[in-house]
Amino acid sequence: MKPQDIVAGKPSMWIFGYGSLVWKPDFKYRRSQVGFIQGYKRRFWHGDNFHRGDDQLPGRVVTLIEDDDASTWGVAFEVTGAEVEESLKYLTVRETVRGGYVTKTVEFFPEGENQPPVQALVYIATSENALYLGPASPEMIGVQIAVSRGKTGHNLEYLLRLAEFMRLSCPQVEDHHLFSIEAAALTVVSYLLTAQ
Fold it and tell me: What pLDDT digit, counting tens, does each position of 94-109 carry?
């Protein structure tokens, strides 16, 4: 489904970010809110040969995997008026054309009491995507992240910024997958630095 079809005729919309969007949305928005979606878990199972890697050494970035018992924390951004079309154009290039993600609508639950859920647009890379890498051990993913770099920067920066967001904005959430990969990647970097 195209993002334009989802929001046709609506004066505003929410966009849920769970990867680099949490620290680098790069589009105008009215407000943002930390919170979560249910039924998905965040995994470093998607390859990136543009932003955080290249064709020889693709980086690893996050996607969402369906899991009825899981939830994923991130940030939802409300865009209104002309921002809706501008943000969708930008995200279509960033996430769909270059990243291979598809769009879905999900129910986003803002953090805090008495906050009603809202419908939000989310970008998800599926296993049908040519860049989809699938599961691997935290150590293997950590090595891949430690040595990959793309046009936007080091893959390690992506990992560390996401881990920092979770620690600062969602300290009550234990994301074992994320933090075990962070530890593995930092071990690789430490080894590489001492080997020089």
Answer: 677 655 688 999 999 9
